[in-house]
Amino acid sequence: MEFNENNFKSVFKKNITDYLNEKKLLNQKYKTLFFSLRDFDNMCWKLNVTESILTKELVIKWLEKKPNECLNNQSKRASMIRCFGRYMYRFNTKNYILPNLLYPIKEKYKPHIYTNDEIQRLFAVVDNLIPTSSFDNKPDIMPIIFRILLFTGMRINEILSLKIDDIKFDEKIIVIKNAKNNKDRLIPISENLYNHLKKYNSKINKNIHSPNYLFRNNHGNKITSDSFYEYFRIYLWKAKIPHTGKGPRVHDFRHTHIVNCIHKWLIEGKNIKTLLPYLQTYLGHSTVEATYYYYHLTLSIYPYLEKKANENDDNILPKIKEGDFDE
Based on the domain organization, do 159 and 201 belong to the same domain? Predict the structure, then answer.
């Protein structure tokens, strides 16, 4: 991903571009940072900021809590602007650096693992959607997206970014390009999911040029994660699955897929230490320690498996540190 000033429009556009390119040169994570800084840039542009100085007032404005925003997300935005402030301070000491003790992470999200009953109720909703107009394609799209979420563990942004030619039907593989941590990876698909995808593609994408997105909205454009989340909330309500400010989230389908996979391996007496590096690659985690998190999560949900895991010393994995969690 190349960065230039055309990606941004505020008075900070050169600073942000140089900052991101420095991150890239240092081989540090920058993809999520790009989207966060783009939001910050957009805010500054709307406020008509005329001087490229990161003031305390501007930082506080950026950190105003959004409606329904959790503290963790606000803290992540604080961390981003704090690091950007340190970068800006190197060139001009007038730039404000947010103190470390402000906006700390105060809560750790505990993933919601969907029960079989919840999954059945949710699929009963999405599989029986009725078109609201002749242009409404959600009854065709939503059943497939939810199946990919549950049966592959892919992130929703990865699914919505798929192009038609990313589905290799002959090989029964999904190709994920330039995902989180700048990784490409291959996702094998089951016979059942393959049949659903093939049927959908034949109906919706017949004679459509392959560079087009696999899933498109009524206007033929890429479906945004925000609009998908709005539909997700509606389907949860129809399925009578309670939603609080802390979830369930769309991303919890990924957690559910991983936990179910490790649960199955433990039941079958598999060697977890041998298999988790493969799972790490499949999931696109940056470290195997990030995948260890799900092993411990699985045991916390199914405590009866701990005894079974301990029967084989190879299944005893180290505890993880706070920073090891990688969704």
Answer: yes
- Write out the DSSP string of 264-275: HHHHTT--HHHH
pTM of this prediction exceeds 0.85: no
**111 lies in some domain:** no
Same domain, 230 and 260: no
Q: Is residue 110 part of a domain?
A: no
Show the domain range for 51: 5-89
**Do residues 175 and 159 make contact, with C-beta atoms less than 8 angstroms apart?**
no
pLDDT in tens, the chain (327 residues): 566 778 899 999 999 999 998 888 877 777 778 889 999 999 999 999 999 999 999 999 999 988 877 777 888 889 899 999 999 999 999 999 999 878 776 556 688 999 999 999 999 999 999 988 888 899 999 999 999 999 999 999 999 999 999 999 999 999 998 766 667 889 999 999 999 999 998 888 877 767 789 999 888 888 988 899 999 999 999 999 998 767 799 999 999 999 999 999 888 888 888 888 888 888 888 777 778 888 888 888 888 877 766 665 555 554 544 444 455
Task: Please give the tally of structural domains in the chain.
Answer: 3
CA 148, 152, 157, 162: dihedral to nearest 10 degrees? -70
Whether 23 is covered by a domain: the verdict is yes
Do residues 296 and 258 make contact, with C-beta atoms less than 8 angstroms apart? no
Q: State whether 234 and 259 are in the same domain.
A: no
